[in-house]
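Morning - heme C inputs below, output right after.
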Amino acid sequence: MNWLSDNVNQLSLLGAAVILILTVYVAGKYIKQMKTDKATGELAEENWDGIGEYKNELPSGWAYTFLGTMVWALWYWTAGYPVDAYSQIGEYNEEVAAHSKMFESKWANADSQTLQEMGEGVYLVQCAPCHGIAGDGMGGKAADLTVWGSKDGVLDVIKNGSKGLGFPMGEMPAGLLSGEAAEKVAEYVAGGMKGDQPAEFATCAGCHGQDGKGMGGMAPDISEYGTPEFVKMVLDHGKKGFIGTMVSFKGRLSPVQEQAVGTYILSLSHGE
Ligand code: HEC
Ligand code: HEC
């Protein structure tokens, strides 16, 4: 490494050399003086157990050096090495941002096969520690993703309720419907709310809206249930649920990665 090629290093070395020379010179001068000089001068009033102190002016060399360090500091912060100038962390962040941009544009139109494969990689690193390698939630430690997002997932929510995504509406109560009615509604919601709406959906419309879209953010948009968009919503929100807490992944995964992991986990419950 050629450390003399960096002007900050050069100046620091120059500064160090100047300080060293001054120190040697001043120390030498006083040592010489101590050998020959007789103490004379006016004593200050303070007196510690008989030991007095001469009234000394501030040595001008010291005062100039002090002023010099102030000028140096000003120069250093504003012109020499300003706070927003080059740094290794800055360079690293720029490189990561450039790479992420490339990654995002490269995979902007990835097909679902590609997304699923990429999603499996993201899943195994980010999600498997809690949800298990097979996605089954490791015996109730986290949501069972082989069910979640499908009709059985909706049935589970209707039976047990849901909480922790942090919507203004709060918690969805358990046991709103059962039996035949629950089946019909679950079928309808898991199917993307297409076709004739079952009359029993009225129970849900009070919170999710007639169109299931969640009444402008009051409750989740369940017309998207079982799509990567819904997974993305969950990942952005995080969940303080009944069985545990999942942190928010907002900003930790890129949009393409969220799309990919969503595609992958939904393939678990949709048997693809
Ligand atoms: C009292 C208001 C309310 C009613 C009534 C209601 N929900 Fe919900 N629902 C919510 C809220 C709030 C959430 C978000 C819960 C959370 O934070 O996990 C939610 C979440 C959901 C979810 C997503 C669960 C998940 O896994 O993230 C589904 C699916 C759902 N509701 C379906 C229904 C269906 C079907 C009905 C009708 C039987 C219904 N809801 C009735 C308020 C309600
Ligand atoms: C720290 C452990 C942990 C990690 C890591 C984690 N989860 Fe979760 N996840 C949970 C827990 C716990 C729940 C269940 C919360 C509840 O309902 O009690 C959950 C619930 C879910 C749900 C259901 C949400 C709902 O609304 O019911 C989905 C989908 C999900 N996780 C996907 C993922 C994905 C995808 C990843 C990886 C990017 C991931 N999780 C990483 C712990 C985790």
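Note: Residues 126-127, 129-131, 142-143, 148, 162, 164-165, 231, 234-235, 239, 241-246, 249, 261, 265 surround heme C (ligand 2) (CB under 6 Å).

O.
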